[in-house]
Amino acid sequence: RSYAPWANASFPPWPRPPHDRASIYEREAAVCAVYPVWDSQIGGDDMTDVVYADTIVELLRQSTSVIVDAQGNERTCGQVLEAGQRLAADFAAAGLQRGDRIAVQMHNSPLYVDLLAAAAIGGFVVMSVNARFAPALADSIIERSGARLVIRSADDLPEVSADQRNFPDASADDRYAIFTTSGTTSAPKLVVHQQR
């Protein structure tokens, strides 16, 4: 689909926490009022295809959406969830524990999406490192993050084939991802995000 008519326009601002359903509906209504094409192409009037979830795992379980990668390959959220469960079990078998940080320095790819799902399932925290950072800067960020595992390609995945495991349910307040600031005024700072 092409959303070009409004691709460069500014959207009404997102409401700030709490992100309750009412405030999300208000924003959706505001976007649809300004950009009628949004209403007709995404969701329609009844918003029946919108999924509300407190955690990434819950979102993947409930969603019927299809994820399309840059090459046009399609996977359902259920398939991503299965891949994430296998990776989470492998990470746990390799000794990673809930709350451990995994640094990921790679371009967007299906594996990156699977790693994000694995982190949500296993309670790991993804330290996202920009793939374009100079090696010295990337290494500094990874060191400061305290990552127990660094993944730059599929070759860096643990070489175990673990059985499926049951992980405790994630909480919306669980730490999930760490991103860096731009580093304009000093070294990039680490910013922790929760599953919420």
Secondary-structure blueprint:
Blueprint: H1 21-34, H2 36-41, H3 56-62, E1 66-68, E2 74-76, H4 77-93, E3 101-104, H5 110-122, E4 125-128, H6 135-145, E5 149-151, E6 175-180, E7 190-194
Parallel strand pairs: 3-4, 3-5, 4-6
Antiparallel strand pairs: 1-2, 6-7
Keywords summarizing the entry:
two-stranded antiparallel sheet; five-stranded mixed beta sheet; alpha/beta; 196 residues
Please provide a written account of the structure.
By secondary structure, the protein is of the alpha/beta class. Helices cover 35% and strands 14% of the residues. The chain contains six helices and seven strands. It has helices at residues 21-34, 36-41, 56-62, 77-93, 110-122, 135-145, and strands at 66-68, 74-76, 101-104, 125-128, 149-151, 175-180, 190-194. It has a five-stranded mixed beta sheet, sandwiched between helices. A two-stranded antiparallel ribbon has the order 1-2. Helix 5 (110-122) links the parallel strand 3 and strand 4 (125-128). Helix 3 crosses helix 4 and helix 4 crosses helix 5 (110-122). The longest helix has 17 residues, at 77-93. The relative contact order is 0.13.
Round the mean pLDDT to the nearest integer and report it.
Answer: 77
Fraction of residues in H or I helices? 25-40%
User: Looking across the biggest beta sheet, what order are the strands in?
Assistant: 5-3-4-6-7
Order of helices and strands: HHHEEHEHEHEEE
What structural category do the secondary elements indicate?
alpha/beta
- Which regions have little confidence, pLDDT < 50, spanning 5+ residues? 1-12, 14-18, 34-45
Number of helices: 6
Shape: globular
**Which sheet architecture does the biggest sheet show?**
5 strands, mixed
Radius of gyration from the alpha-carbon trace, in angstroms: 19 Å
How far the N terminus sits from the C terminus, by CA atoms, comes to 28 Å
User: How much β-strand is present in the residues?
Assistant: 5-15%
**What is the number of E strands?**
7
